[in-house]
Amino acid sequence: MNNVTPLLSQPVNILLAEEDDFLQQEIVSGLNNQGYHVISANKTAKINQLIQQWLPQVILFRVKAGAKEGWQSLSRLGQRAAVPLIALVSEDALRYVPRWADDFLLLPMNSDELQARIQLATARQPAQSDWLTSRNIAVNRATRQVLVGDAREDIAAMLTATELKILSYLLSEPQRIFSRQAIQHACLNDEQVSERTVDSHISKLRKKIAAAGVRFVPQSIRGSGYRLGD
Fold first, then answer.
1. Where among 107, 124, 141 does a domain terminate?
2. Strand-strand pairing, 37-41 and 13-17
3. Which segments constitute the OmpR/PhoB-type domain (predicted)?
């Protein structure tokens, strides 16, 4: 794949359903290098878990020649989560692309074509406000402002890119408890890092938010993970 910067103004979360480890690694590495947030899975149960925890905006899955069933369960999962499904398919397997796929892309992938398909798929999704808010914190995903406390102090300059990503992720559902694994997958782009790394990022983020007058945010939920809270 060509090394092209994505045309989207905000990074897109992509879930790749791929059984072949080598191709999986190649696609994930290529897309991550282009600025997308990509995570992969090869089992339906894992895919279902990631759809709920990681909130992908697009699902890519490969269709093989002769595979009549394949990722059939993706149809139900994608429809339930309202996530567009894009099939990756070689020319000799075109007739096996399922009717429920929202789009397809020929392998080997062309970066410009992939970007165009992702843009088209995400454009069909309902528009979201640029602001993510709770009672004490507001993040603007377009301008990267981070306003904290009654005084609405902007602490964006104090946060690292990872801390901002974690804060935005927790703020997407303030009352939801996110596991360390979910935060790791969604915000660190590396399945090999320790969950203690998540704790370290949260601790630093909490101190910076506390310095602006809001204490104990994010909240630690013993044995479960973290949530932003009110």
1. 124
2. parallel
3. 129-230
Question: What does the alpha-carbon distance between residue 85 and residue 136 come to, in Å, rounded to a whole number?
Answer: 36
CATH of the domain at 187: 1.10.10.10
* Amino acid identity, position 86: I
Are 36 and 90 in a shared domain?
yes
Q: How far is CA 129 from the centre of its chain?
A: 17
> How crowded is residue 204: how many other Cβ atoms within 10 Å of its Cβ?
16
Higher pLDDT, 190 or 6: 190
- What does the CA dihedral 28, 34, 35, 37 come to, rounded to 10 degrees? -20
Closest by CA to 37, choosing from 4, 1, 6, 79, is 6
Taking the CB of residue 61, how many other CB atoms lie within 10 A of it?
23
Expressed as residue numbers, the domain containing 59 is 13-124
Task: Retrieve residue 123's tokens.
Answer: 């454009």
Contact 95, 104 (CB under 8 A): no
Residues 53 and 113 grouped into a single domain: yes
The model scores a pTM over 0.90:
no
Q: Kindly state whether residues 113 and 24 are assigned to the same domain.
A: yes
Q: Are 136 and 143 in contact (CB under 8 A)?
A: no
**Which positions ≥6 away from 147 have C-beta within 8 Å?**
137, 138, 139, 153, 154
Structurally, the chain folds into a number of domains equal to 2
